Q: What sequence folds into this?
């Protein structure tokens, strides 16, 4: 099995899907077929769904190389690269909380499409993971334009090494991404590949006016909404959900909080996510259902909600 062939096959599937993953954008197709995902995937990965014994199976490149490669190129399956913040070594089936992964292809591509980075844009990524998405970004925006922040030192070191080995010039910083990266601000694009309950104020301050922020935001429905927001200046942004998704939480935001305190109206129907608006500034965030959705039976029907894609 050849990785390039698998990549091309995935690209064709993404292209022909009614969901329009590439959105007709040639650059997005190009970055996908150019960056070797298998270069970033660790040799040992956990399958994200448990076997009958309740454990997540280990996929070992050394033992089953074809199975490993096929898994790496599954469109809708994230592969788990860390459990319980690294407390469990990837050498046997295991269970525990997923804390890092190589995100699934459909989610990665859809987020990039919504982020819409242009050549030369300065980009901040939060949650480097394997470095795969960092490489896709850098391929689009160019050398020394992407800063990626990863909280786990071992994961960051590995991503740095993998990016370097491929000649990708992107900076990987080990720190808590909730604080962003002031030294590189303002950013044209900010993307988080870990989900948040509250959009961190630092990201809003570090986004230039007119810049775009894409992040998975926790919702009262139990899944995340990918929100695409535009910076409005003075540390504020406004935008809308563009997809449903499930991501691992940013470390500092794992503890559940009341959605009311997070700016969600009581009793809101998250199934109407396409009609929600999200505003965030230095004082907090507010989610509202927009007027078109509240006009009654004559207004457009609420968009159907599909199963959330997981990261
Ligand atoms: C879903 S994984 C990212 C996957 C990555 N996009 C890829 O495809 O390889 C989320 C990552 O966010 C990192 N993370 C969690 N909390 C963080 C924080 N506060 N700051 C920076 N990184 C964080 C985790 O360690 C994990 O590696």
A:
């Amino acid at each position: 099995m050849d990785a390039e062939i698998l990549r091309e096959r995935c690209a064709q599937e993404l292209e022909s899907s009614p969901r329009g993953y590439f959105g007709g954008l040639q650059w997005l197709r190009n970055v996908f077929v150019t960056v070797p995902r298998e270069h970033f995937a660790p040799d040992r990965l956990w399958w994200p769904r448990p076997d009958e014994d309740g454990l997540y199976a280990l996929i070992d490149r050394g033992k089953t190389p074809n199975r490993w490669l096929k898994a790496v190129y599954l469109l809708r399956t994230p592969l788990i690269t860390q459990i319980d913040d690294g407390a469990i070594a990837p050498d046997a089936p295991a269970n525990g909380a997923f804390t890092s992964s190589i995100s699934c292809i459909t989610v990665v591509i859809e987020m990039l499409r919504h982020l819409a980075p242009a050549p030369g844009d300065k980009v901040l990524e939060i949650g480097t993971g394997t470095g795969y998405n960092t490489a896709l970004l850098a391929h689009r925006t160019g050398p020394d334009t992407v800063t990626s922040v990863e909280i786990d030192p071992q994961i960051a070191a590995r991503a740095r090494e993998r990016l370097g080995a491929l000649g990708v010039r992107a900076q990987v910083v080990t720190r808590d991404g909730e604080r962003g990266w002031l030294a590189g601000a303002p950013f044209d694009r900010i993307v988080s590949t870990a989900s948040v309950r509250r959009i961190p104020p630092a990201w809003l301050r570090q986004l230039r006016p007119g810049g775009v922020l894409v992040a998975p935001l926790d919702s009262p429905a139990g899944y995340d909404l990918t929100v695409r927001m535009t910076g409005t200046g003075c540390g504020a942004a406004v935008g809308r959900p563009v997809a449903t998704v499930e991501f691992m939480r940013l470390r500092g935001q794992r503890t559940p909080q009341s959605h009311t305190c997070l700016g969600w109206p009581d009793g809101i129907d998250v199934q109407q996510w396409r009609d929600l608006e999200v505003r965030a500034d230095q004082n907090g965030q507010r989610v509202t259902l927009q007027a078109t959705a509240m006009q009654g039976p004559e207004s457009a029907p609420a968009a159907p909600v599909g199963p959330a894609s997981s990261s």
About this structure: The radius of gyration is 19 Å. Residues 99-103, 126-127, 129-130, 132-133, 149-152, 155, 176-178, 193-194, 247-248, 250-252, 311 surround S-adenosylmethionine (CB under 6 Å). The longest helix spans residues 3-16. The mean pLDDT is 94.
